[in-house]
Amino acid sequence: MTAETSSRDFRSRLRAFDALKPLLPYAYRYKGRIALALIALGVAAVSTLTLPLAVRGMIDHGFSADDPSAVNLYFGAMVGVVAILAFASGTRYYLVMTLGERIVADLRGDFFRHLTSLDAAFYDKTKTGELTSRLTADTTQLKSVFGSSVSIALRNLFMFAGAIVMMTLTSPKLTGVALAAIPCIVLPLIASGRVMRRRSRHAQDQLATASAYAAENLAAMRTMQACNAQRVAAERFGAAAEGAYAAARDATQTRAIVTSVTIFLAFGSVVAMLWLGAQDVLAGRITTGVLSQFVLYAVLAASSLGELSQVWSEVSAAAGAAGRIGEILSIQPTVAAPSAPLHLPKPVRGGVAFDDVGFSYPAGSGRAALDGLSFAVAPGERIAIVGPSGAGKSTVFQLLERFYDVSRGAITIDGVDLRALDPIELRGAIALAPQDPIVFGMSVADNIAYGREGVSRSAIIEAAKRAQAAQFIEALPQGYDTEIGERGVTLSGGQRQRLAIARAILADAPILLLDEATSALDAENEALVKEALHDVMRGRTTLVIAHRLATVLEATRILVMSEGRIVEQGTHASLVAAGGLYARLARLQFDMGAEAAAAALETA
Asked: Which of 153, 348, 490, 543 would bridge 510 by S-S if both were Cys, CB 3.0 to 4.6 A apart?
């Protein structure tokens, strides 16, 4: 290998650490603490480098019979130096470790904040368990870099440089021998960097895979147990964990080999220098104290190089973790606020229009979910959307909340294109009560007020009453302060749905989206909630994905969708009379013929 090739390879390996550069601003925020840590580090290093001088003086002069008290002086001086060293080392340790914790806490906060800004298309193709691994395991890997690793590296660089200077002043001849051995120690260290980064990153990827599998199955524990899949799930996770272990073992093996080789070469050179120094002592060229001083400095230099090898391996592994985090941080959401967003008129009237909308899911099969969809909803109008599974009903809601942007055409609210709006302002004008409501592992009150923290307790209670949820909430052990478990597993489906309806009521938005929000309720509670929803829907634009006939009957207009298009629209009576898709759905889904449906309409 030529010198030019070797230099180019070294530069390419250094560039691998570029992944750490975006994280440097996090450290710069705490430059005052860093300065204090550097001062403490310098004091500790100088104290350490002073000890061999005291040892030399003690050996050469402390045991002299001419002045027996000198030994007390030298030992006293050593105790003082050790005390300064201990205080400076403890101070340095506290400063750098808390600095690492502080930086990682900031990074985790920014990383999670970035995750919340990414759009639905990103989460369609990314496992949340893997993201959790990056948020926890990878950031923990970085903590050692900004905490102990950087401190250890600086301390050992300082110690190495100081020890070399003192070795040179003590014995230039022996120092030349030591310096000749340094390339043999450093080159294996540099050569191992690429392998270490590759194996560390593979280990982190394997751990993320295992974490993602565990998170997915733990979230569906009841389904797992209902299907008696515990053994299979445990075996699969065991295999994934074994893969993570094997990858971590390989990375550790590489680090162990590099550390062993470096330490052998470093301390082997010390032994060689000790042998040469012993020859000089025997020949009378140097004193025993001088040799002792030189050996101590040589040991300090060798141990510093040995620790630097370990730090290099840790930083290599951290560079892999930083690269994984950087990949996510570099992703920009495709759905974002424009540079100069428009605003909805005040007050928002709630007029909704789809104009020749076409859309395909980015992570889907490529088949159009909507194909030339056009319809308009007047402010305050109540629209029901029906159709077979896969017709595109839920996609209408997804696009209206701008979780995705349309492929062609436009969607407007009060004449303003959704793409010209800030998504936060847009979603503030829309309330959603989904068919499968999400309930979080916090108190009932916090669940109702989710996204609207700071609202009064009285407003939360009023929303619960209007959603017919107050009775079961007040029966809970701590009422509105009851913690309801992750995903609300302690509640029934109907109770979770009423909490979601209370959340939508509290939002008080001009546009209301109901994804068959009463489907999990019994007949009695359904009647009560529908009465509440009548009150909520009054004066609001309401779009309802409907499966139950009773919901359809309440709509002023029904849109019938099939294969991403509107194939029929009208009132219940006119659609049943037309005998088309809606009439067939009515017979199949509601077990109701046309005449019975018409009779139900008359009595509704």
From this structure: 348
Query: What are the respective helix, strand and coil percentages of the chain, to the nearest 5?
Result: 70, 10, 25
Radius of gyration of the chain (CA): 36
**CA 535, 539, 545: angle at the middle one, nearest 5?**
75
Write down the architecture of domain 436-508 according to CATH: 3-Layer(aba) Sandwich (3.40)
Pairing of strands 408-413, 565-570: unpaired
How far CA 556 is from CA of 495, 513, 542, in Å, comes to: 28, 15, 10
Nearest to 598 by CA among 555, 557, 549, 559: 549
Question: What average pLDDT is seen over the chain?
Answer: 77
Q: Compute, in degrees rounded to 10, the torsion defined by CA atoms 483, 489, 490, 495.
A: 100
CB distance 245 to 207 below 8 Å = no
CA 268 to chain centre: 45
Beta-carbon contacts of 161 under 8 Å, excluding residues fewer than 6 positions away, are none
Place 566 in a pLDDT band, splitting at 50, 70 and 90.
Answer: very high
Residues 169-189 have a mean pLDDT of 71
pLDDT tens, 467-487? 888 888 888 888 888 888 666
Average pLDDT rounded to a whole number, residues 581-590: 74
Cβ(429)–Cβ(344) below 8 Å: yes
The distance from CA 92 to its chain's CA centroid, rounded to whole angstroms, is 30
Q: Tell me: the pLDDT tens digits for 71-127?
A: 677 677 778 888 888 888 888 888 888 888 888 888 888 888 888 888 888 888 877
Cα–Cα distance between 559 and 338 in angstroms, integer? 32
- For the stretch 439-471, what's the b/e string if a residue is b when 16 or more beta carbons lie within 10 angstroms of its beta carbon? beeebbbbbbbbeeeeeeeeebbebbebbbbbe
Cβ-proximal residues to 264 (8 Å cutoff; 6+ apart), any chain: none
How far is 410 from 353, CA to CA, in rounded Å?
8
Interatomic CA distance for residues 192 and 308, integer angstroms? 13
What percent of the chain has pLDDT above 90?
Answer: 10
CATH number of 20-329: 1.20.1560.10
In this structure, what token pair is assigned to residue 367? 């088949």
Helix (H) / strand (E) element for 51: namely helix 31-57
